[in-house]
Design brief:
This protein folds into 2 domains: 183 residues, no CATH class; 181 residues, no CATH class. Helices cover 57% and strands 16% of the residues. Helix 2 runs antiparallel to helix 13. The protein is built from 14 helices and 13 strands. By secondary structure, the chain is of the alpha+beta class.
C-alpha cells in the first residue's frame, strides 16, 4: 500500500468522524496552544526589555555604581543580610568615581527610590503618582533626556539648593494642558517648586510611563527627604566599547576609597543595563522551567485519549480489518494504516494548537501592554510534539489491529 493511499485513507477516516476527532485532539490543541502563546509572550517581553526597558532605566553606554545589585530579589537570607550591611553611597564616593573617570561624558549622583509617589498640584488641577527624583545635572545626559521646553537643571540649581523642577511630558500635558508650564509655581510633595523645563516624551514601557516624573536638584531633595540608602552613581561613557574599562576603573577607585583588602568582597555593585536584562531573564527562566511540566501533562493526557480512541476504532473496524487481510493486506499494511491515522490526528492537533496559540498571543499583545513574538523553535517543537504523541501512543493500537486473526475478524459484527 503506497504512502499516498495510506495518508488519504487516514484523512478520510478523520473527516468521517469530525466531532470525535476534534474532542480527541482537544488535549493536544490546548497544550500546544499554551506552549506557543506563553513562549511568544515571554520572548516578546525579553526582546522588549532588552531593547527598551534597560536603556530607559540606565541610559545608553552607561553603568551604575549601586549599594545593592539589581538581582537582590533572588538573594537568600544569608546574601540579603550581607548586602543589607553595605554602607550607603555618599557624595565622597561620587567624587572618587568622577575623579577616576575623567574621560566619561557624564557622572551623576541620583536618589529617588523608595520615595513615595507624590501629587503635583497647580491651581485646582492635580496629577497623582508622580515619581520625584533628586539628581545632579549630569544625570540628564546619562539618561539621554531631551528638553522640549524651557531649560534643564544646571549646576547653580544644585549648588544653591533651588526649589526648581523639570517635569516629565505626561505631567506637563495633564497639569497645564494649553498653558505655558515654564515659570509656573507648583506644589510638589507639600513644597513649592518653580517649573523650569519639560522633558520630551520617552513613552510607556509595559504599561509603565517614563514621563510621570519630576526632577529636582539633589541638594533640595535631601533637604526634604534626607539622604537615601538607595542613592546611586550613574556614569555615561563616550562609547559602548569604553563601558567595561570604565566599570573596572570605577570598581578599583571605590575599593581603594573604602579600604577593601585584596580578596575582600565589594560592599557595592557596579552594573550595566545587561544586569537588568539578566535579572529579567532569570525571572522568565522560572516560567520556562514550569512550561515543560504543564505541557507534558497535557500532551500525555491527549496521547492517552488518542490511544483509547484508536483502540475503540480497532474494535469498531474489526470486520473491515478482516476483509482487508482476506484480500491480501499484510499485517504491516494494517499496522501502518492505523499508525498513520494516529500520527495524522496528532499532527492536526499540533497545527491547530499552533494557530490557536498564535492567535491568543496576538490577542494578548493587542489587548494589553505585554508584547508577543512568535519563535520558529516553539512552532517546530509544537509540531514535533504532535507527531511524537501520534507515534508514541499509536503504536499499541496499530499493532493490536495488525495481530487480529482474519477469520475471527470476519466473524465480528
Amino acid at each position: 500500500m503506497h504512502f499516498a493511499d495510506v495518508l488519504a485513507t487516514a484523512l478520510s477516516e478523520i473527516r468521517a468522524n469530525k466531532l470525535r476527532s476534534f474532542f480527541t485532539l482537544l488535549g493536544i490543541i490546548v497544550s500546544v496552544a499554551f506552549l506557543v502563546a506563553v513562549v511568544a509572550v515571554i520572548q516578546g517581553m525579553n526582546a522588549y526589555v532588552t531593547q527598551n526597558v534597560a536603556n530607559s532605566v540606565m541610559g545608553t553606554n552607561a553603568f551604575q555604581v549601586r549599594r545593592v545589585p539589581v538581582q537582590l530579589g533572588f538573594f537568600d537570607d544569608e546574601q540579603w543580610n550581607r548586602v543589607a550591611k553595605r554602607p550607603a553611597l555618599t557624595r565622597a564616593d561620587f567624587e572618587i568615581v568622577r575623579a577616576a573617570l575623567p574621560d566619561a561624558r557624564a557622572v551623576a549622583i541620583t536618589s529617588g527610590f523608595p520615595t513615595p509617589l507624590s501629587d503635583i498640584t497647580w491651581g485646582n488641577r492635580t496629577v497623582g503618582d508622580v515619581t520625584i527624583r533628586g539628581i545632579t545635572p549630569p544625570y540628564q545626559e546619562v539618561q539621554d533626556y531631551r528638553i522640549e521646553r524651557g531649560r534643564p537643571l544646571i549646576d547653580a540649581d544644585e549648588d544653591q539648593r533651588r526649589a526648581v523642577a523639570v517635569v516629565g511630558f505626561e505631567v506637563a500635558d495633564k497639569l497645564f494642558q494649553t498653558a505655558n508650564p515654564i515659570g509656573q509655581s507648583v506644589r510638589l510633595g507639600g513644597d513649592r517648586f518653580e517649573v523650569v523645563g519639560v522633558l520630551a516624551s520617552k513613552g510607556r514601557v509595559l504599561g509603565q510611563s517614563f514621563d510621570a516624573l519630576a526632577l529636582i536638584p539633589l541638594s533640595r531633595y535631601e533637604m526634604i527627604y534626607g539622604h537615601r540608602a538607595s542613592t546611586s552613581i550613574s556614569v555615561k561613557m563616550a562609547a559602548a566599547v569604553s563601558v567595561a574599562d570604565g566599570m573596572h576603573r570605577a570598581e578599583e577607585a571605590m575599593r581603594m576609597h573604602r579600604r577593601l583588602r585584596p580578596g575582600q568582597e565589594n560592599n557595592f555593585s557596579v552594573e550595566t543595563a545587561e544586569a537588568l536584562v539578566a535579572f529579567w531573564k532569570s525571572l522568565t527562566a522560572v516560567l520556562f522551567s514550569v512550561i515543560p511540566a504543564v505541557v507534558g501533562i497535557g500532551v500525555v493526557v491527549g496521547g492517552i485519549v488518542i490511544m483509547n480512541i484508536m483502540l475503540m476504532a480497532v474494535t469498531e473496524r474489526t470486520r473491515e480489518i478482516g476483509i482487508r487481510k482476506a484480500v491480501g493486506a499484510r499485517a504491516k499494511d494494517i499496522e501502518r494504516q492505523f499508525l498513520a491515522e494516529a500520527i495524522a490526528l496528532s499532527l492536526i492537533g499540533g497545527m491547530l494548537g499552533v494557530l490557536s496559540g498564535w492567535a491568543f498571543a496576538e490577542l494578548v499583545a493587542s489587548a494589553s501592554p505585554l508584547p508577543a513574538r512568535i519563535t520558529w523553535w516553539s512552532v517546530a517543537l509544537a509540531v514535533t510534539l504532535g507527531a511524537g504523541v501520534g507515534v508514541l501512543f499509536g503504536v499499541y493500537p496499530s499493532r493490536r489491529a495488525a495481530r487480529l486473526d482474519p477469520i475471527e475478524a470476519l466473524r465480528a459484527e
